[in-house]
Amino acid sequence: MKTNFSILLGFLLIISGCSKNDGSLLIDPVAQINATASSGSVKASNKMLIGDPADVSKVTTGGTCLMGGSTDVDAAFKWMIGKSGGGDFVVIRVDNSTGYNSYIYNMGGVNSVETVIIAKPTDAQSQTIANKIRGAEALFIAGGDQANYVKLWKNTPVEDAINFLINAKKVPVGGTSAGCAILGSSYFAALNGSVTSAEAMSNPYNSLVSLGHDDFLNIPYLQNTITDQHFSQRGREGRLVTFMARMNKDYGKNARGIASDEQTAVCVDENGIAKVFGINNAFFLQITSSGPETCVSGFPLTWNLGMQAIKVYRIAGSSTGNGSFDLKDYSTATGGNWLYYYVNNGSFFTN
C-alpha cells in the first residue's frame, strides 16, 4: 500500500506541476498555436498569420496604393480590402514584425492576414515564399529600407510573384514609405543611403542619388514614374525634381513623379484614376516641355524653363478619398490645384 500510494502521489505532483494557476492542464504550445481562437472562426497557423489558414480564391480588382509613411491610413487599407474580394491579405517585409496582422484583420472583410518575412537571399529564392505571395488577394509592402528590398528581392522568385499579382492575377498592391518607394518603374534605391534635397540639387550625380530604372516592379500606370514619400514633412520636393532630371537626362524619360505626404495615400484604381486618402497632400509631377538646362556631375542642378519646369497637381486627402487624377493623360484632374516647381543653381522654388 505504501508503494502504491507513493506512485499515486508522484503522478498527482507531475500533473499539478503541468497545470496553470486556474487548475486546468497546460496545452502543448504547438497545439495551442493551431487551435481555433475563442471568438468567431479566427485560426492562427503560426504567429505570422491571423484568420483562416485555408487558401481561398476570390474575384479581385487591381489597384495600387502609394502611402507616404508615418501613421497608416485606415481608409486606404479599406480600399485595398474592398478590391481583394474578401480573400487573403499578405504583408511582406524584412524586419521581424507582425503588427499589420491584427490591424488589417480587425478592419473586417478578409479571410486572413499573413506577414511574410523575406530577410535573407534564401528567403527571396524560396518557392514556398513566392507561392505564399502568389496566393494573395491583396499585397502590402511594409516600410523599412528600400535598399534591402532592392538587394534582396530584385531578380528573384519574389519579384516574379509580385509582378504576377499585379499583371496576371490583378490584385491590389500597395506599400508605405520604403515599400512605396519601389513601386514606380523608376525608383530611388537608396543603395548608398538616403539623400536630402540640398544634397541632390547641389550635385545630381552625388553617389547618394542611386536610381533604378525599368528593372524591378512593373505597374502599368506607373511607367516613367518615380515615387517619393514623407514629402512635405521632410522637404523632399527638390530631390524628387532631381530624380526626374536624372531620368530625363540619362534615360530619355518623359519623367513623371507621384509624391505622398505622411499619413496620406494615393490610391490608383484599375483604370488609372487616382484618389487621395488621409489628412495631408499628394502631388502629381510632370515635365512641361524639355529637360533641365544643367544636369552635370559636380555642378548644381538648374531646371528653370521660365520658372515652369515641372507642372504639379496638388490634392488634399480626405477620409473618403478626395479629388481625382487621371494617370493616363496627366491632365484630367479635379479637387486640387495646379502649381509649378523649378530649380535654379541648386535651389528649389515653387509658384
Give a brief description:
By secondary structure, this protein is an alpha/beta fold.
CATH topology call: Rossmann fold
**By CATH's scheme, which homologous superfamily applies?**
Class I glutamine amidotransferase (GATase) domain
Low-confidence stretches: 1-45
The number of helical elements comes to 11
**What fraction, in percent, of the residue positions are helical?**
25-40%
Structural class: alpha/beta
Major sheet: size, sense and barrel closure?
A: 10 strands, mixed
Tally of strands: 18
Itemize the secondary structure elements and their pairings.
Elements: H1 2-17, H2 29-34, E1 49-51, E2 63-67, H3 74-84, E3 88-93, H4 99-105, E4 112-117, H5 121-124, H6 127-134, E5 138-141, H7 146-153, H8 157-169, E6 172-176, H9 178-181, E7 186-188, H10 197-202, E8 211-213, E9 225-228, H11 237-251, E10 256-260, E11 264-268, E12 273-278, E13 281-287, E14 310-316, E15 322-326, E16 333-334, E17 336-344, E18 347-350
Parallel strand pairs: 2-6, 3-4, 3-5, 5-6, 9-10
Antiparallel strand pairs: 1-4, 2-11, 7-8, 10-13, 11-12, 12-15, 13-14, 14-17, 15-16, 17-18
